[in-house]
Amino acid sequence: MKAHTPLLAFRSWITMLALLALVPLAQAQVVGTVTRVSGLMVATGTDGRTRVLALSSPLRQGDTLTTARNTFGRLEFIDGAALVLQPESLLVLSRYSYDAARPDLDRVELELRQGGFSSTIGALAKRSSNATTITTPAGKLQGSASMEVSLRQP
Questions:
Q1: In contact, 85 and 72? CB cutoff 8 Å
Q2: Residue 12: pLDDT above 60?
Q3: pLDDT per residue as tens digits for the range 22-48
């Protein structure tokens, strides 16, 4: 049996390395999907990887979304809320925490750095009126209303 011990140890070591290599592939929590897109919309994940978004693409917590010129993107979140991102926008999905059985965990944190969006509320906002915060360069918005936010001059 001792003749097989080094081989067994080597195989265990290789298996452990293979499993560790998979760790970076673990994805952040999916918080929504793209339901429409009219041009180029891109997501950059917390790992720095960029992906082009299309119909049914998943949206993950921590994603930074950007839309190109003349591009609109409609997003639907896990609680049924919807958001239409305007052209030339940059939106960070900092946090989107919703569990139908755990209202105490409700929390949405979005950061609009550029552009604008229109949104309609979902189940989270209906039951947790102060759980949503939208940060912009001009300040913070908090509440549970359908809204239109634009950083462009009229």
A1: yes
A2: no
A3: 444 456 899 999 999 999 999 999 999
**Taking 60 as the threshold, does the pLDDT of residue 82 lie above it?**
yes
Q: How many CA atoms lie within 13 A of 77 on its CB side?
A: 25
Q: Using CA atoms, how far apart are residues 77 and 97, in angstroms rounded to an integer?
A: 10
**What letter represents residue 99's amino acid?**
D
Q: Where are the domains of the chain?
A: 29-150
Q: Decide: residue 23, CB within 10 A, 0-12 exposed, 13-18 middle, 19+ buried.
A: exposed
Coil, strand or helix: which one is 103? Answer: helix
- Are 111 and 132 within 8 A, CB to CB? no
Query: Is the CB of residue 38 less than 8 Å from the CB of residue 74?
Result: no
C-alpha R_g of the chain: 20
Local confidence band at 5 (pLDDT 50, 70, 90 cut-offs):
low
Specify the pTM.
0.81
C-alpha span between 29 and 19 (Å, rounded): 20
- What is the longest distance spanned by two Cα atoms in the chain? 80
